[in-house]
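<purpose> Linking amino acid order to shape
<body> The protein record starts here
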Amino acid sequence: MERELIGIISFIGLVLLLAARMPVAFVMLVLGMGGIAWIKGTEAAVSAASAIIYGTFANYALVVVPLFTWMGYLGYHSGMGSHLYEAAYKMVGRLKGGLAMATTIACAAFGAICGSTTATSATFATLALPEMKKRGYDPSLATACIAASGILGVLIPPSVIFIVYASITAESVAKLFIGGILPGLLLMVLFMGGTYTVVALDPKKAPPGPSFPWSERLIALAKGGIEVIIIFAAVIGGLLAGLFTGTEAGSVGCFATLVVVLVRRALTWKGFVDSLKDTVRTSTMVMFLVGAAAIYGEFLGITRLPMLVSDWVVALPLPPWLIIIAILFILLIMGCFVDALAMILLTTPIFYPAAMKLGYDGTWFGIIMTLALGMGVLTPPVGANVYVVFAVDKETPVMTIFKGTWPYLIALWVCCIILLAFPPIVTYLPSFIK
């Protein structure tokens, strides 16, 4: 059997097994080692697997995975999210749909310390959902807004997905982080526009909240924003100034977060221990996924499938922008069945070479991929963020939450189209990094 055919059969089998909700890392590991054994023999497969696992775990760039993960959990367990929500609530809560908009703003700010979409959604499902229900918000709007806004956690740096993408493609982690800032802010505004549209069509879905004096708003803003500003400035400011690399930024971010929460006396001993436990669990899962994906990627490299797909895509008689849109549709469909992190590991080795041959910037393509895969956390049957919000809420049916996500899915597509039309939105800030 031809190697290329083996690769195609394996890839189809992988997608089907993942759609059947089989463990991602296990499937990649078994198919990867099995494929190498089929082509080169069992001894070669075992030898390759051991070398790949060691090489992957020794990758200096992946040191930031546990560091940025701990940074996010420190913010989560210290109650930083509640300060952010209170500040955003007092600033825009008086508007129609203001509480939902405040949630989006707070999620964007929380994304500056947390690189996980599910953790961001879980945090604000606990903080914002009771308040929105208390104010008479439509359950579909309230829950869908939180599920969608969680996506900002992986777009605004730091982001675990950016780190994994960089480890696969050898793109600069620092440039990916900086490149995600403006698209993240753009998506935040588009999400707020989606909320405004829903409320404009049916004002009963989101009545206005109470108004607060400016003195109280500014105090809340200082209390909620100063923590994130210090941490964000330490990490992103240092990257822009060239003081340290993207990898070193992880330790700087952890140190800054730890200092902030200790000075504010916002972290209990139990919270500190829980943050370490959560970090170990999440980092272990991510590293196992990355290691298994590296083995499967080696197998795909042996079959030459990524190169063949890349050459075929480039040879299509279509303009490059239309090919990118087709790739986004493929990512959207696959993202409905497979977790976003697994999708980055699975599809980057295939689509990244094609994007490079079409002349697109690697940092830009990473942002676009993240946006496309973000749609998957809002669409059935996987819809990770939707199920996270449902697990916290328990009252609003899952399908009701899914029905409420339509304005945010439109916003994601609009954001992708804007970035496709104006790539400098992504590439301008990273151009300052030497």
Q: What stands out?
A: The mean pLDDT is 84. The first helix runs from residue 3 to 19. The CA atoms of residues 335 and 376 lie 4 Å apart. Residues 1-58+292-303 form one domain.
